[in-house]
Every structure is written in C-alpha cells, then in structure tokens.
Amino acid sequence: MKQQDIDRIAASLDALECKTLKEVEEARVRFLGKKGEITALFEEFRTVDRDQKAIFGRLLNELKQKAQARIEELKGKAADEGSSDGPKIDLSMPGDPYELGSRHPVSIVRQEIVDIFRKFGYDVAEGPEIEDDYHVFEALNFPANHPARDMQDTFFVSAGHLNPLLLRTHTSSVQVRTMEKMPVPIRVICPGRVFRNEAISARAHCIFHQVEGLYIDENVSFADLKQAILLFAREMFGPDTQIRMRPSYFPFTEPSAEVDVSCNICHGKGCNICKGTGWLEILGCGMVDPNVLEASGIDSKRYSGFAFGMGLERIAMLKWRVNDLRHYFENDMRFLREFAAAPEV
Ligand code: DAH
C-alpha cells in the first residue's frame, strides 16, 4: 500500500462534482461500494506490514470518513438543486374535503312552515326579542295580575316601572306590532325566538322558538281558521292527517282552541308517542279578541280575525321523534348530523 494511492483518492473526492442524486449514488458506489476504490484499499490493508499498520489504519479511516462526509455534502446540494425545479408536491392529488355543515332541525321546520303559509298568501313579519310589557301582555288583553307576567315566567330586563322591558315570552307580541303598522287586511306569520324562566328539562327550556299566525279582514270566521289549520296540517304531516279542536283559553282570543293532529305514527290506534290517545297537540289558536283589535286601533265592528301560535321544537319533535328538548340546544354533532340528509327546504 502506498501513501500516493490514498492521496490520489482524497484529491479525486475533493474534485468530485455531482449534479443529480443519481450521480451522487454512482460516486458512493465508486468509492465506498463493495468493489469501490476505498473498499479495495481496506482489502489491501490486510497485507500491510505490521509496523505500518497503525499509520495506514489511521489514514484509511480518515479517508473513509472524508468520503462519507463528501458524499453527504454532495447529496444535500443535489437535493437543493432538484428542489429549485419547483415544489415537490403532487398537484393532481385530490384536495382535502371541506366539512360541510347542515341546517339545524329547528331551521328546517321553520322554513317548511314559512313556505307552506307563503303558498296561502301570508307574509313574514318580525319583531324584537327584547320587548316591553305592553306588546307582550297589555295589548294582548292579559289582566294586570295574570300569572304569565309573574317573575317566575318572564325574564325582565328592567323591572319596576310602568312598562318594563323583558324578553318576549311568546311571538304573539309580533301580532300587536304588525297591527300597529300594517293596514288591514293583514295576513302574516311571525317566526321567532322566545324566552321563559323555566327549569331546563326534557320537556321545557328557557329558550325556544314559535311561529305565530295572524289573519284579519272583513268576515273572517272560525270556519276560515279551521280550514287554514287543516290545510297546514296536511301539508306538514301528510295528506291523510285529521285535526281536532278542543276548547281552550288564551287572553287574546275568544273563542280559543287547542289543535291536535291525528298521530301519524299509529294512525289513531294509540302508541307511546301519542300516549295511547291517537292525537298529538300542535298549536293554540282562536278568534282575535275584539279588545286586542281595538288596542291596536282596528275597528272590531268592521273587522275580525284569527290567530294561532305553535312551538317549533315541538313540531320538530313530532316530525323526527326527538324525545328530549335539550338536544336542540347542545349542538352535539352526533345529533346535528342526523339532519344532514334532510332535504333542502
Ligand atoms: N302565545 C301562546 C303561547 O305562547 C300561543 C298562542 C295561542 C298564540 C293562541 C296564538 C293563539 O296566536 O291564538 O302559549
């Protein structure tokens, strides 16, 4: 073994140029591969005289380390140059899909109800969620000490004076606002959020949604109310749906009724959803009390009208058989995804 052989290989390592990773790999094989030049020197090392072994051993190890370092250096350079050709990404790969949201069941039902009444010629009217006592109670013929005004039911924003601000407890307040500003005939429906000071349970919540309806014209009769509700019920729950009206009481309607639809699950036979009765309650309604018309400046001798109000969560519960009101407000994705396939309405 000669010193010159080692020096010659070291010089050619210094002079080495590689443009591509493939050339780097070829250089590695040339020097360090099984039949490479440096590997060959290690073979030859076996025959070196004993007294020279220490020197040549050190030189050979240094040479091998130099070669490895040089190859790594060239590899890095070639990779950098390769990357200047453009980003190493596959532009033909499919993109990451966006997670699409879907309508909330309460929104789906509200839209469906609005669409049905639009077909009957109703406009949509809205009013404020923070209301005053006058529009929520007084103008709707609630007696001064009616329990609905009680602190236990109503969230007051400012208490104490004559017409306190409060969170509306029903959308019937929008009836009053509409009568105040629209000329008769009036035909509106009013979807909106309402608030009641209730303990939260499967059947009650402090926030929920209602849709109110109001129709005022000359000669509006209870028969018109019945027909409007029947048509609505058949659009909403299917063409075979029956309705029944039970006498009831609301301060702002006279006479008043509660409406049941025939149970679309057992078709009147009785099941656990309708609690064996064959009927499901969906709304309250009645003929607008003359006091209510007069309070908003409408001549009750000339005009009459009907009103109705229903809870959206309740309708959605009947439609999809949801058994706990709290699901609507918790935004649990497992619940919300159940409605992803519901048709766009
Ligand atoms: N406002 C009533 C409630 O929240 C529902 C209601 C009943 C509305 C009868 C009406 C009606 O317009 O005529 O319980």
Describe the fold and architecture.
The chain is of the alpha+beta class. The protein folds into 2 domains: 3-84; 105-339, Bira Bifunctional Protein, Domain 2 (BirA Bifunctional Protein, domain 2), CATH 3.30.930. It has 12 helices and 10 strands. The protein has helices at 3-15, 21-32, 37-45, 50-83, 105-119, 133-136, 172-181, 222-237, 290-295, 312-320, 327-330, 333-336, and strands at residues 123-124, 130-132, 156-158, 165-167, 186-195, 207-217, 243-250, 253-262, 279-288, 304-311. The protein is rod-shaped, with a radius of gyration of 41 Å. The model has no long low-confidence stretch (mean pLDDT 90). Residues 170, 172, 212, 250, 253, 284-286, 307-309 line the site of 3,4-dihydroxyphenylalanine.
